[in-house]
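Escalated from tier 1: magnesium ion holo job.
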Amino acid sequence: MAPPVTRQRVTIQCVLLLTLALAPVLARAEWVYHRGDMMGTSLRMAVWHEDHDAAQAAIDAVIADMRRINALMSPYVADSELSRLNAHAAREPVAVSAELITLLQQARAVSETTGGAFDITYASVGHLYDYRHGVRPDASAVKQRLPAIDYRHVVIDADAGTVRYSQPGVRIDLGGIAKGYAVERAAGILARHGVSNAQISLGGDTRLLGDHRGRPWIIGIRDPRDAERTAVRVPLADEAISTSGDYERYFEEGGIRYHHIINPDTGASPDSVHSVTIIGPSATRTDAFSTSVFVMGVDRGMAFIEDQPAFEAVIVDSRGRLHYSSGLEPGDDTEGAE
Ligand code: AMP
Ligand code: MG
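Tier 2 regenerated the structure:
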């Protein structure tokens, strides 16, 4: 494919028929592993440490922090700060932690740079979908609630430490940014525990600390229509990589796939791409950007990423075609085979 470019950062290797490349790499005694459920998805960690107990203590600290974030930000936890906002903020300002205020400000900044493609108030309509039970709002319910989707309705008063909603019917959900935030924090926690090589993956959001002991980590991007197949493998160190896909939570009805990413302009799921992967220096932003670019589609989404010098994208469109941002160079298939 394309010859090397001057600002090339990583080489992409297409291995259309290979299974996940990560498994054999992770089978070493020096690495301490964790697998579990967290924030409604799967948590996986690989941590390098000379001292097994110290590695376990670092892993435990990450798990405790993720539980704390979930208790603060989950819409499914009745007394989370986020639930309290959704219950009361349309009537009066609600006092919340400085941490939540900071994340709300970061979400707002992403809304501004993405022209509203990322919008946590998508939940004003989004909460009417129940993907597990195949429930969706009808057109009139969507139309009626659509005006409540607008990130500007969330009024943050950082000095007072409060948040209010300027309209009735507004709801927020941090599902498009909180997992990235959690793995970004995890990298910091592990580093403070003396870890310099680790991988933390929470659902589709991965943060890498250092490399894989002298070689890059190899991160597989799955084929969005076949969980057993890896579409692309990316060698990476010290970066974050997030994938948003239409296969995570969805149901189909009348040939339409209703999935968990919502276009704030329409209240419906975008159908022009199947998955979006973003690579960059912060998992909080790769997470939010992957959701954003999913909403924007190939042309607008790629133009947005080309404007962000530190970030790269791999998009699988609705015909299964791969699109790469200009800082990525696709390699050849044989090189990618291990
Ligand atoms: P991700 O897997 O990171 O793409 O996040 C998907 C999650 O982001 C969904 O489950 C929703 O919680 C949330 N979400 C959906 N649509 C949007 C949107 N347009 N802006 C912000 N968050 C969204
Ligand atoms: Mg995301």
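The chain has nine helices and 17 strands.
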